[in-house]
From TrEMBL:
Domain HTH cro/C1-type: 18-71
CDD domains tied to this protein: HTH_XRE
Superkingdom to which the source organism belongs: Bacteria
Secretion signal, residue range per the UniProt entry: none
InterPro entries assigned to the protein according to its UniProt record, in alphabetical order: Cro/C1-type_HTH (IPR001387), DUF5753 (IPR043917), Lambda_DNA-bd_dom_sf (IPR010982)
Listed name of the protein: Helix-turn-helix domain-containing protein
Length: 193
């Protein structure tokens, strides 16, 4: 399981804060568990940092301890941040993002493949509202949330070709795209160490 250093610190800080609050309240872990309708083992794992509690679990613990609103707000924000980071890193690791980027970089070397990437930092004057595919000068498909639209009129096809060319003008291609992919893959691996 991958956990960046900052995520581990957030979990530890949250665990220590919850343990300190319970201790200051004079409640035992067992008594708090009863108040929260959780197992004593879950309370223990949460307080030692071996389990990352959900935001709902933290809300239940804070309510059972009758924690002042300002402190509760801070701890809930810490719990939200820790859970989002944890999920994101676990998801990226599971998907093998760094491997996919390196694989795309290798695929980009094939003579029949063109990969174009618009980095997030590049300002493009328009934002695509839907995914579209240009098959040729007679057919364009546009994917919507509820289905797919087939466009065959010359004006619609011309509009989408111009839109595609605009995006391509802002994209990295060829060796630049490959270097970008490999750099992002390396950056991902460095961040998780």
């Amino acid at each position: 399981m991958l956990e960046p250093e900052h995520q581990g610190r957030q979990r530890k800080n949250l665990a220590e804060a919850l343990r300190s609050l319970r201790s200051a309240s004079g409640l035992s872990g067992s008594r708090l568990a009863v108040r929260c309708q959780m197992s004593q083992a879950k309370i223990s794992r949460t307080e030692t940092g071996s389990t990352l509690p959900s935001v709902i679990d933290v809300e239940r613990i804070l309510a059972a301890l009758d924690v002042p609103e300002e402190i509760a707000r801070e701890l809930l924000e810490l719990a939200r941040t820790a859970n989002v980071d944890y999920t994101a890193w676990r998801t990226f690791a599971r998907l093998g993002l760094h491997q996919k980027q390196a694989e795309l970089a290798r695929v980009s070397e094939k003579p029949n493949v063109d990969i174009a990437i618009i980095p997030q930092t590049v300002q493009v004057p328009v934002t695509p509202m839907n995914i579209f595919v240009i098959y040729d000068d007679r057919l364009v498909t546009v994917e919507l949330f509820s289905g797919e639209v087939v466009l065959r009129t010359p004006q619609d096809i011309s509009h989408h070709i111009e839109l595609f060319e605009l995006f391509m003008a802002h994209a990295l291609t060829g060796a630049e795209a490959k270097a970008f992919l490999l750099d992002r893959a390396d950056e991902f691996m460095r961040e998780r160490e």
